[in-house]
TrEMBL record:
Domain of life: Bacteria
Protein name: Sulfate transport system permease protein
GO molecular function: ABC-type sulfate transporter activity
Subunit-level organization: The complex is composed of two ATP-binding proteins (CysA), two transmembrane proteins (CysT and CysW) and a solute-binding protein (CysP).
Domain ABC transmembrane type-1: 77-278
Location(s) in or outside the cell: Cell membrane
GO cellular component: plasma membrane
PROSITE patterns: ABC_TM1
Mode of membrane association: Multi-pass membrane protein
Amino acid sequence: MSDAALPLKTNDLATRRDDRRVRGESVAVQILLIGLSLAFLLLFLLLPLITVFVEAGARGWEAYKAAIFEPDAVAAIRLTLLVAAVAVPFNIVVGIAAAWAIAKFEFRGKNLLISLIDLPFSVSPVISGLVFVLLFGAQGYFGAWLKAHDVQIIFALPGLILATVFVTFPFVARELIPHMQSLGSADEEAALTLGASPWRTFFSITLPNVKWSLFYGVLLCNARAMGEFGAVAVVSGKIRGLTNTMPLHVEILYNEYMGAAAFAVASLLAGLALVTLALKTLLEWRFGDAIAASRRH
């Protein structure tokens, strides 16, 4: 280490001590807070996650593979991926449109639109699923019309998609709105003044400026879409092999005292969550400076 680096490190230590004195936090308080945080993470996050993988492999690889490749489990996995593949892109498009409208324009009903975007956060997923049943079920408001035109929504794929879209919609929009508001409209106005079309302005300026926030929103939306239980349970009918997603299949297996198979399928959901977390961490590690810069603007 060069002598020139020593004063810098000494100054850094002094700065940290000054910061602690300003905040009034002692070393003991910091250790206590860190210890409580680590204890919470260990007890409520890490131990349950470890338990899932331990129980999933308790009976060996052959039993695990049999549980995963069992026909009903394969159907549940395919259905979960299909629902997410439809719901997430839909929420990306609508979320971007809603965030763009709220952040860039002034119009009547703007506050109402913001409240509606937050609605899925305040309504129980079970209640939202029940609402779809009351609307599109056989005895619902549109049930007779749907039956006359041979259209089935409840207890079928469309109902699963509707329920998933509803509960996951806020994630993309809520990530984009504050970021777009902080950026303002100066760049877009300059581009339009120079002759760029609205669509070219959007794809060349607006979208690149919010790409990190958009990616975060997509990650959260996808994770919730694959793990949603309450709303999907109401509209699916829990028809084994037909309308069961992975979370519903786990519940059925567990209720039938097939614990090893339930944990095996649950380990796939946990693995998807870990992949999402790893992807987010890799993104922050690889492009941390760019993400931090975009958040500051």
